[in-house]
């Protein structure tokens, strides 16, 4: 069975894994990334990690998932808050020359999408839209096991979709950006505004909603409606077979998800009703999806 190398590079840690065609992680290694020490240092760490994997020489190719917008054509990071010293660095060229293997790179959410589309909750469907709802909100479209990155690497930046222009502006995102209204960060902010510092994270608001607290239920209801607006906007562009939803906020799915789907189905055309919602399945969608990059791109 063919094997591939998947790399998950973040601002704190870097992980590399050997993954087979069925998505089984055969070996994984991890180290701190130390991006403040520069691009060459991070590349050396990445090479060292990959070379610690047993039988890396026999792997068919290497895929990398990295946060932020990625230039997949030239193999570079476009913008990054966590890895600023790697912006513009020829990461793919560096790694492919060292190992003499096909090497690919994409945004971390997009590789997670690929993992779920190829081997996870979306594997039975041709058109998969993956959404992660956590600290922020991101997503990506997969068609026939290929992820769409867009002309500039920004496809899937759905957290900036405006769901109501009459909301407040909080950061660089649009006024009424769904990430500022329905992400875990947003629910925590709204919870603190109502309940004070007893709210430490979105889960605290969800727990109050389970206890039928009216103010918490209102926050959750607004969240469900705002998410439905986002899903509706996505669906009316690409009409997927399935939405696969992951991220930490899904730990509270029992209080908002069914309500969100009901709102969503009231917003879409009758002919679009067959779409299904599924929770993400893979425990390691990022690193498995990164390994799927070479698997799906090598002819």
UniProtKB/TrEMBL annotation:
SUPFAM superfamilies registered for this protein in UniProt: Actin-like ATPase domain (SSF53067)
Family: Belongs to the ROK (NagC/XylR) family.
InterPro entries from the UniProt entry: ATPase_NBD (IPR043129), ROK (IPR000600)
Gene3D superfamilies: 3.30.420.40
PANTHER family linked: BIFUNCTIONAL UDP-N-ACETYLGLUCOSAMINE 2-EPIMERASE_N-ACETYLMANNOSAMINE KINASE (PTHR18964:SF149), ROK (REPRESSOR, ORF, KINASE) FAMILY (PTHR18964)
Name assigned to this protein: ROK family protein
Superkingdom per UniProt: Bacteria
């Amino acid at each position: 069975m063919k094997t591939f190398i998947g790399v998950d590079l973040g601002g704190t840690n870097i992980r590399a894994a050997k993954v087979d065609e069925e998505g089984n992680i055969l070996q994984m290694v991890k180290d701190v990334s130390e991006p403040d020490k520069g691009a060459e240092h991070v590349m050396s760490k990445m090479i060292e990690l990959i070379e610690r994997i047993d039988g890396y020489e026999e792997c068919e190719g290497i895929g990398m998932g990295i946060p932020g917008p990625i230039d997949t054509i030239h193999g570079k990071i476009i913008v990054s808050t966590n890895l600023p010293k790697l912006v513009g660095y020829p990461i793919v060229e560096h790694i492919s020359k060292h190992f003499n293997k096909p090497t690919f790179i994409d945004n971390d959410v997009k590789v997670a999408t690929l993992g779920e589309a190829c081997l996870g909750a979306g594997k039975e469907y041709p058109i998969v839209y993956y959404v992660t709802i956590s600290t922020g909100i991101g997503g990506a479209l997969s068609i026939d096991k290929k992820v769409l990155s867009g002309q500039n690497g920004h496809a899937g930046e759905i957290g900036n979709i405006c769901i109501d222009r009459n909301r407040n502006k909080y950061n660089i995102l649009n006024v009424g950006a769904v990430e500022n209204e329905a992400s875990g960060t947003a629910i925590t902010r709204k919870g603190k505004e109502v309940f004070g510092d007893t709210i430490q994270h979105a889960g605290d608001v969800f727990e109050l909603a389970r206890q039928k607290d009216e103010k918490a239920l209102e926050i959750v209801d607004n969240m469900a409606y705002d998410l439905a607006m986002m899903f509706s906007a996505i669906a009316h562009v690409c009409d997927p077979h399935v939405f696969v939803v992951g991220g930490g906020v899904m730990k509270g799915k029992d209080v908002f998800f069914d309500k969100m789907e009901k709102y969503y189905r009231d917003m879409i055309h009758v002919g679009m009703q067959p779409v299904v919602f599924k929770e993400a399945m893979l425990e390691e969608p990022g690193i498995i999806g990164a390994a799927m990059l070479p698997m799906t791109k090598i002819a």
